[in-house]
Amino acid sequence: GNASLAVEIVDAAFFGDRRRVVARTASGDEIDVRPTSDAAEPDSADAASGRQIFFDPASAFLFPA
Predict the structure, then answer these.
(1) CATH number of the domain that residue 59 is part of
(2) N or C end of the chain: which has fewer CB within 10 A?
(3) Which contiguous run of DSSP H or E holds residue 61?
(4) C-alpha to C-alpha distances, 53 to 18, 24, 58, nearest whole angstrom
(5) Whole-structure pTM value
């Protein structure tokens, strides 16, 4: 279904030059929020779960994966 895109950032960490951010949706689900530069990794472990979204810091919009 269409989950709310309103999220609360609950955690953020930097791994090398990449940022991993955990956000909580209005329904209480925790999701990974990543820079769009990570979108080219279809073999990501999170991609199969359908809970991964990509975050574009420049526009501050969330996009479902």
Answers:
(1) 2.40.50
(2) N
(3) strand 61-64
(4) 15, 12, 15
(5) 0.26
